[in-house]
Please model this.
Amino acid sequence: MTTTTNRIMTLEEYLNYDDGTDTRYELVNGELVEMPSESDLNNAIAIFLLFAFGQFVPPRLLRRGTEIVVTGSRTTTRIPDLIVLTEDLATALRGSTRSIITSDMPPPALVVEIVSPGTENEQRDYRYKRSEYAARGIAEYWLVDPQRAVVIVLILVAGFYEEALFQGSDLIVSSTFPNLQLTAAQILLASN
Model:
């Protein structure tokens, strides 16, 4: 990831920022940070989960590429790999000119991050996003880590995430999707 500007941006400046390219950015503590494109495996896993979740919720409650404003010392936005909306959040997003979940909207039901290789990516997904998503009140946060061959499901309890780790033939346990019948291996091998 590369910091693109040397100045601190407000959320409004970020929302109006256009460098004339298709480059994806997150705003991290007010700094514009370029996000690398997804690996084919990460993309395949996200689409696999999109179809799996689509068996339990209508497509209008599923999002890829939607931004979410989270708390931090300065304004921070994240772009999760997959988001499951609540009905209230879907209503709040209706008619928006940009697919962004602002701080005055209800939190999503579930957010999925697929960890890309590299120490910086691991720190961002395991450490920073974990605390940001908990502070934002997101009830369930999945970390899908192909490099470690694990799926971690974090459930928000009294403001903190309780963690369950799944590997191989372990059946994923989800509060959001209690009838989901997927193993960690099925998710991690989505591109096969």
